[in-house]
Hints:
Elements: H1 2-5, H2 12-28, H3 33-50, H4 55-76, H5 92-112, H6 117-138, H7 152-157, H8 168-174, H9 179-198, H10 203-222, H11 227-233, H12 235-251, H13 255-268, H14 271-298, H15 304-311, E1 317-319, H16 322-331, E2 335-336, H17 345-356, H18 359-367, E3 373-377, H19 381-389, H20 394-399, E4 407-410, E5 418-423
Parallel strand pairs: 1-2, 1-3
Antiparallel strand pairs: 3-5, 4-5
Amino acid sequence: xxxxxxxxxxxxxxxxxxxxxxALAIAVGAETTPLVAVVCAIVACQWxxxxxxxxxSTVAFGLSLAAGLSVIFFSTVPPRLYFVATCxxxxxxxxxxxxxxxxxxxxxxxxxxxxxxxxxxxxxALCGLVVAAVALSVAPQCxxxxxxxxxxxxxxxxxxxxxxxxxxxxxxxxxxxxxxxxYFTGAxxxxxxxxRILHRDRIDLHLVLLALVLSxxxxxxxxxxxxxxSNLLAIVPMALLLADLRxxxxxxxxxxxxxxxxxxxxxxxxxxxxxxAGTLAEKxxxxxxxxxxxxxxxxxxxxDAALADIGRLAPSLVVGPSDIxxxxxxxxxxxxxxxxxxxxxGGMLRELKIGLAEPGAAAVLLHQLGQPVLAxxxxxxxxxxxxxxxxxxxYADLAAGRVPAFLSPLPVSKGSPIRLYTLxx
Length: 425
């Protein structure tokens, strides 16, 4: 999308490719919809400004977006779900908006491109009103947070501990040393674009790049996962800057200062540099090594070796942390009670209550599931949170080595971080 939108000749083929890429982005993940919305706004603003010059490219973008998403929708969504509006994947909710917006934008460009800017603005405003009306009539629930309806206990013990869902406020409170790694690259790229615009250097190009990077950075401030987009899109304006600085330093006319400026800009452009620098500044070299070890320990429950013992068991229902559940679904024939999907709220909530409950109550909850296998991993982050919250609960007892009588241990490999239990007769 970024590559096609910076075409200053407004070639229809390039904008058709941008529309197809936008359709694919929506189909891949609902979290890309804000960025796709910004892309659509960029195309609309370019048409508003350029008029007839951008008419064919705008028509190509709108029709390509509508046609591309239509093909994907009818190829991947089963007929029984055509009119089911869901807010976390490709459904009639997103399809209706993209179809309406794409067709109306193309229609406006095809009919009023030769008219005055005021009339073009009126056409865009009308398109926006129709799209808003479609959103309110088809899926008004998708205008809010799809996770807002989760149980408070699930929010406290699961959602609030998902690292990629944290806001900049939580990042600043929990790991301030990573602020630079998450946000500086996008902020630096935005500043570069603003500096170029103020100096009237390829203004239209840098306005497009600024809109893409800055909108992604704004999303990252709400959920840090958005920094993946802002850091990647930031490569384009930073690459232009580094190319200019490199040319100056290689020419030999600017002296050592230009070379230092080039090297400095190169270093501060890399998010990993800020991550390492932040950890070293806070904890030193030994602290950095300890942080790396903590990450490794937290992932120990997900290795092939750790899950091998479970894989050798006859297929059954496994009760364990949600992260383990995702891996078991992928690699084994087992069913799982809990996996980290917000549509699995009931299963995740049941697993949390089992871990929090005192042994007698936990036994009742487990017996209600039939004959499950309990997979306990003391170094799992969520398990540690549960054990700390309920010191007399089942998970706290198992972490301390106290196995209640209603559980029978199963043999596990030496050194495995996972302990397996079935219900005793």
